[in-house]
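Hey team,

Filing this mostly as a record. A colleague (T.K.) asked me to run one chain through the structure pipeline before their review meeting, and I want the input and output archived in the tracker in case anyone asks later how it was produced. No errors, nothing strange. Just documentation.

Input sequence:
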Amino acid sequence: MRFLLAVALILSGAMVPRQRTFLLLGDSITQGEGDHYPISKPWRSWLNELRSPGQEVYRYVGLLPGYNGRDGHGMCWDPTKFDEPHGAQCGVKSEDILEWLRASEDYLYTSTVSDVVVAIGTNNIGSQQSVQEAIRNTEELIDEAEKMLPRANIYVATLIWNEFYPVSEYNVALRQAIIDRQLKGERVFLLDWSSEIAESDTYDGLHPNADGSRKMAMFARKVFSKQSARVLIPDMLLLD
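Output structure:
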């Protein structure tokens, strides 16, 4: 009955507030808290503040302590918990996120996640991984997200300006990897933050400052809004 009502409202053009549920796979640039990030609003916190009347509301699957991973304090995503704590951790690499994602499979398989953001790689490059190895690890994470959430849009972010690591080479390879996936018909889209963020938008040569975070959010909202969500439920009728 709820489903039929939802369909009727959508077809009638009724202005029903809607939510998109995002799974954020990221590091400190997405987490935006702690000693590495002495500003009040990372890019994810700006997304809903930049929302115009009638636009979709974004919410984020919570990342919680879940199992004893290889580091002794593994995490998993719980789609019954939203926004706080959000889905990112300082210092993580794509391998860590992949392990946590696999530990969350039973939770996420039946969830209403509509969009996935893969914003990872800086710590891979920073740990002396080659660009080729870092790209392979990112692609393995994309593969797992596609398998686990086949109806979700997947956005993969380029690495923002960084004075310490060779991110430009990584970004070139990542852009080509995304093009190759799109040619295969995959719903994988580039979130090209590197085209928006300059040195002046960071506070330490690595993490975005307040202006940089806001720019990242504005650009992300434009990218997200171009893709329709295939898992989109009117806010008043959310089943989870």
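Quick notes for T.K.: The two ends are 15 Å apart (CA to CA). Confidence is low (pLDDT under 50) at residues 68-72, 232-240.
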